[in-house]
Amino acid sequence: MFPWGRALVEIKSIELVHFRNYEQVKVPFHRGINIFVGSNGQGKTNLLEAIALLSGNGSHRDAKDTDMLSWQKDFYRIKAEGLTFNHPFQIDLLYSGEKRKKVQLNGRTLKRIYDLSEAVNTVIFSPEDLALVKGSPSERRRFLDREIGQTSPAYCDVLQRYQKAITQRNALLRRIRQKEATMAELDLWDEQVAPLAVELLQRRLDSIAKIAPYARQIYNSLSEGKEELDLTYRSSFPLQYDRNYWLDDYKKALRDRRSEEIIRQVTLVGPHRDDLQLYINKREAKLYASQGQQRSIALSLKLAEIAFIYYFRKEYPIVLLDDVMSELDPQRREQLLKDLHRRQVQVFITTTHLRAFPATMMKEMALFRVQEGRLWPTSE
Ligand SMILES: Nc1ncnc2c1ncn2[C@@H]1O[C@H](COP(=O)(O)OP(=O)(O)OP(=O)(O)O)[C@@H](O)[C@H]1O
Ligand SMILES: [Mg+2]
Asked: Which positions are tagged coiled coil (predicted)?
């Protein structure tokens, strides 16, 4: 399903203190497939969320640090040890109520949390991924941004600067509306915002060009050759073919929409308004895809993300599968696990029951029982 290579990254152990419903746990992991089994509401997803935080993205559920902090506690900590490209790493995340958490990689404090992606990358599959197809454009932008961001801290940097600039620009639009600021100030802002927007656009389009063939091939095999998946980027303003004109294109779009923007007090054009469009057999998936097709599209995009990360890093990400095994038919399930296993990808899977796992693979996996925020190795 994805390119041939071998994973060289592994989390050897994790320690959680006051994280969600975990008071304090420390567990060693298996280098291959790890399964967390337990009833609903016991802490399985919480654990995957903690592992995903190690790659420097925010929570996959979009939770804030204050949400992840155990109730009535004043700090949470996540520590992990592992290997990346066969070199040991230690990660220490500490949140104690301030605006940003303190992040250390190998004892060095990082200014930017997303620099953690140097050590660990993760791709997470969860039931919420269905929203990728039918949800709002922001879901698909988030997918793109996380995917590109993991392979490029520089992209995260530009994205953050752009988002901040847009927030400030919106505030300026409000002040102009109230006659507290002038158009000349807006001209100055637009000069600042435009190059950031164009940079984001270029990176997104380049990434889609890379990811689309993977996603297409994977979807094609999931549908047994019957259907084709296409991905295209929809910009919120007209773009010429030649990238050299994009800066002018964006500035023109800002000028054209200016009066409307002042009335509405929001920036209406730019990468924060764009979309990733998905098509099956040339029809827009958002409008026509069935439940099963939506699941296959989401799965194809995530598997393509694994391939994309491998392409850039020559290293697979750690794969987190939250409750998705039962969504796949037995044949696909086994295929996916075998593919990951053969490439020595470290995988963390949550499930409420073990029926979904092929008996032949059980001996290659490590099992953990999750109950009321406690976690221990088990053999059944
Ligand atoms: N900040 C927090 N502090 C303490 N407990 C929390 C916090 N946030 C969530 N919880 C608790 O964590 C539990 C949910 O954990 P989680 O989402 O990991 O469940 P799960 O095992 O994945 O269940 P399911 O199988 O239903 O998906 C709930 O009992 C919830 O009350
Ligand atoms: Mg869960």
From this structure: none
